[in-house]
Each structure stands twice: as C-alpha cells, then as structure tokens.
Amino acid sequence: MKVNAFIQARMSSSRLPGKVLTNIVDKPMLQHIVERLKNAKMINEVVVLTSNEHSDDAISTFCDSHHIACFRGSLNDVLNRFYMASQIYPADHIVRITADCPLVDSELVDDIVAKHLAAKADFTSNCHPAMYPDGLDVEVMKASALHSAQSQADTAHQREHVTPFLFTHQEQFLCVNYDAPTELPLLRLTVDHPEDLTLIKKIYSVLYPLDTNFNLQKTLNLLAENPTWLDDNKQFSRNEATQV
C-alpha cells in the first residue's frame, strides 16, 4: 500500500506573490512543508506539484537543487495536474496539501491517513466541515477516486480545487470526516497575506529551534501564552484564497 503526498504550489498568488519560497527561519516555506511531511510515517513519497507557467520556473529550480520530486502541469486545471502527477508518481492513495500551510502536522497527517485506510474510504479530510485551524487542512483520496474525478468533473470550480467533486458526490464515494479529539480554536494559521506570514514567523522563531517538527499542540500552547500575536491576521476570513 503506497501513499504519496502531493503539495500544490505556485508563485503567482494574487495576495502574496512568491510566498511559497519566502524564507521562514532561513529556509523557504516550501522546504519546511516538504521536510515536515517527510516526518510522516504513513507517507512514502513527497512530490511538489506546480504549473508549467514560466512564473513557476523558480519552484522547479528550487526542487531540482534540493532533490525534491516535482511535477509540472496545468495552472488552472489543478485536478488534471494531480491526475497527471499520479501517473508519474503512482500510489494507491494521495494526500493533498497546499503550499501555504507551513504548520502542517506530520502526526495529524499520519492519523488521518490511518483512519482513511481503516475505513476503506475513497476520501477523508479534516476540513469538510472544518475541524482544525486553517492551515492544518489534510485531504486524502484513493487514486481510483482521483481518476474518477478527473474523468467526470466538468466545472471550473471542481477542476481548480481538485477535491470538490469527491465530497459533493457522496452517493458515489465513501467520504469520511476526521473529527478533532477535542474542540479546537479555528485559528488562521495559513499564509495568504503579509500579516499571516508575520504570525507564522513568530511561531517558528520560538518553536523551530527547539523542535524542527513541532506539532499543532505546541503551536496552540505558544499562542495561548501569546494571545496578542493573533491580532496580526484576525481581520481575514477562512479560505479566502482560491488557489495557493
């Protein structure tokens, strides 16, 4: 049973261009995400999925120089990008992560993949509905479900966002939601604005030197000790961005 993690990444963010290669504690954000996912025991291979646009040459160059697997495909038809990548980097199941989530938790990824496999689900997530802070979203899908979506999804929204065809067709797919063990604050821990990056850099500056793979609970503990940090980006709503 092989499980690959696909990280959806692009440079042309409308609100914070180039954010995926912005340094956080002397490493590009994308590198942190790759390294954190490589700590997940359930993941066999981590692949960055970017577009074939010239603007994303920097991502491809970065991956090549750091020996990170990279696939390039359509900018807007991200579903097709995932499908084509699954042909080059085949697996039985695929974990979708977006490159604006530098706090992705390898322990949480493992738990969600384990639940997905135990349930023999087609699609499992912790974000439909949202159960975790924004930036901790994890989606897992069977390769066969991805292939079905590729052949059947016919709206721009379904093709841009990869997974809506799966979780909106539960008569066709077994969809499972991963519930948080306790009620968690639905904080904004993603990066879409400069203010988001300010918060993330504060978190990393404290926790990363102590533990390069610090988990969500350590982040929540730190924020409980420093509640005013959350003022940095509280004006923004969840899931503002249409793409990474």
Automatic annotation (TrEMBL):
GO cellular component terms given for this protein: cytosol
Kindly provide the name given to this protein in its UniProt entry: Spore coat protein
Among Gene3D superfamilies, the record links this protein to:
Spore Coat Polysaccharide Biosynthesis Protein SpsA, Chain A (3.90.550.10)
InterPro entries in UniProt: Cytidylyl_trans, Nucleotide-diphossugar_trans
